[in-house]
Amino acid sequence: MILLCDVNKIMLNDKIKKYLNNLDNNENLLQSFHGEYKIAEEIKNILKKEGESYKPSDEDIFEQIAFDFLAEYPNDNSGWGIYYGPMFILPNKQGQMVEYPSIQRVTETTLNYWENRAKETKNPILSSRYADLVVDFSPKVLSKSADHKLFQLVIDTCITICEKLIAELLDCKTKIKRALKLAIQINDEERIKRTKETIISLEEKIAEDGKAGLWGFAFEWLLLDFSNKVSITPQEKNGLINDLEKRLKRVKENPWSTECAVSLLAEYYSKEKDETNLMRVLEILEKSFKEDDRTNSDALLKIHAFEKIHEIYQKYRDKGFLEAKKAVDRISQEIGSLDLDWQKSLKRVSVATDIEKEKIDKFLDAIFGKEEQNELENILARIVINFLPKQADLKNQLEEISKNNPLQFLCNTQIISGDGIPIAKLSSLNDDYDNHFQNYASQYLQLSSSLLSLMIEELKKRISKDEIVEYFKGSFLLKNENGEYIRRAISAYWDNDYLVSSHLFIPLIESSIRELIRVCGGIILVPNSISGYDRFPLTALLKNQGDIIKVVFSQIGHDMPFYFRLVLTEKLGMNLRNNFAHGLEKNTFFYRETSDGC
Questions:
Q1: Percent of the chain residues past pLDDT 70, beyond the cut
Q2: What total of structural domains would you count in the chain?
Q3: d(Cα 149, Cα 257) in Å, to the nearest integer?
């Protein structure tokens, strides 16, 4: 049963009632970007002024929350799977997550109230909001669809809003898109046609070349997103294409606007299998990026522009366009040949930390022994245990840092190699946790390198080079290695010739890992194509046989396969083995941090 709730007969606060009646008589009062949310704000202010003794009625709350729900709510875990969602979800004092407005406040009584308000109000913005809430929440709250006429009311009022431009321009876009979706949902051909015509008319009225958000939406919705749901005449179709092509010519000096136009045209020409026009508009975008003064003023901006071009061509290469494949190869070559001034684009960030000498001495005593020096094997084990990061600790640190600096982990992060090549782009922490973790662990190792250097210098003072050489020559994993090779590697390191020591250490480490896996019964050989066997490369060994290494080192409480990958084979780590093997980032091998890490 529908409850009658005329605004003048219900238990609504008189001041709220007066405010809403005023909106009915002057629809232009809502013509701002915040639109309906200003209504909720005004209602809250009215209730606040009533004082703590005033208890808001149900109707007061119905009006307030009606305009606090967020339209076009993101389709994620924090919403309810419908068009509207809460304004925010935040923890309370007890740490429990609380949403506002809560869907629990939306009951059959609430929906009845909104339905009657939708029918009685004269303001199309109010009517549209009330009716749309009923349309959206009814299946969720009542397990049934709203009255068909309410769908029609939302569509009709949205059309009126856009025809009169009584909402902010971007809000008009949102409302007419909602109208189109609802018209399609109820399969109302007449209203689909009217909405289509309003979309085209709206863009004609509000489009400005310099405001990319105000154009292209008619093309996007009618020729791409809903093309199989909306009938469009050849004249309308040609008009939309020609308008966007003309706009592209006008904005081609602006890479951002050019990208907005080309992204739509390229999708359309791709759908039509029109490779000639597809490549034409993509080349316009490429030229716009390459010739832009701002893009060319900074190495980071320039490499980002080339990456963007590369990604776009890849997209259409993957759809089977041969010319796009050629463009991908060409841009790849150009990226490798870019002359980039990273010194100008990047700034060095340094942090100084003071450590009391007493703490350093205490730390070294724990490693080497205080009154009596520890055995060499014990010293080396303590150095390893103290230097290697525990994954659990790193995860806790990363979680704490992300809480204290959330913006840092919401934006994309570009990772540049030491020789100026973009090797990775990390998205948000939630979407790309593993790569963020590797990157953080690598940074942790770099920051810890000074402490490791301190331990190594103390080791050199206390233990002779010959003792170290003999110790490693006697190691079980190195017993089959050439003794002179081991001596030269350690001697170069002892004499601070880090370039030589790194190049000798890395093959030695790889062969030791392979030997460890062999003696533990792991697989180190793989059949090749000439009826023989090849040794597994290090990357494959650490990936496929890592459990063996983990078991061997389980007593020290560290994930050694993770550390080996981080130092030797991971792009987001030090990647020493691959850089050494392929002649990459050669300058890093001059520094002691590289040899220390080995």
A1: 93
A2: 3
A3: 40
* 52 Cβ contact partners less than 8 Å away, ≥ 6 residues apart: none
pLDDT, tens digit, 9 for 90 and up, residues 306-315: 989 999 999 9
Is 355 inside any structural domain?
Answer: no
**Separation CA 310–CA 326 (nearest Å):** 11
Give the predicted TM-score (pTM) of the model: 0.71
DSSP secondary-structure letter at 385?
H
Distance, CA of 423 to CA of 372 (rounded, Å): 48
Q: How far apart are CA 103 and CA 69, in angstroms?
A: 10
Structural domain span for residue 435? 362-597
Q: Are 334 and 377 part of one and the same domain?
A: no
- CA distances (Å), origin 194, targets 188, 221, 230, 582: 10, 14, 11, 63
Note the pLDDT of residue 347. Answer: 66
- SS3 label, residue 225: helix
Residue 74 placed within a domain: yes
Q: How far apart are CA 486 and CA 472, in angstroms?
A: 8
* 20: in domain: yes
Query: Residue 92 corresponds to which tokens in the numbers above?
Result: 């309370």
* Interval 73-95: pLDDT, tens: 987 666 788 999 998 888 777 77
Are 189 and 275 within one domain? no
How far apart (Å, rounded) are the C-alpha atoms in residues 354 and 579?
33
Q: How far apart are CA 309 and CA 286, in angstroms?
A: 6
From 173, 206, 239, give the residue that closes a domain: 206
Residue 350 φ then ψ, to 5°: -125, 150
Query: Rounded distance, CA 122 to CA 145, Å?
Result: 24
Query: What amino acid is encoded at 418 in this protein?
Result: G
3-state helix, strand, coil in the chain (%, to 5): 65, 5, 30
Pick from 321, 347, 373: which residue ends a domain? 347
Give the count of beta carbons closer than 10 Å to the beta carbon of residue 137.
Answer: 22
Angle at 403 between CA 400 and CA 407, to 5 degrees: 130
Q: Predicted confidence band at 7 (pLDDT cuts at 50, 70, 90)?
A: very low
Give domain status of residue 214, yes or no. Answer: no
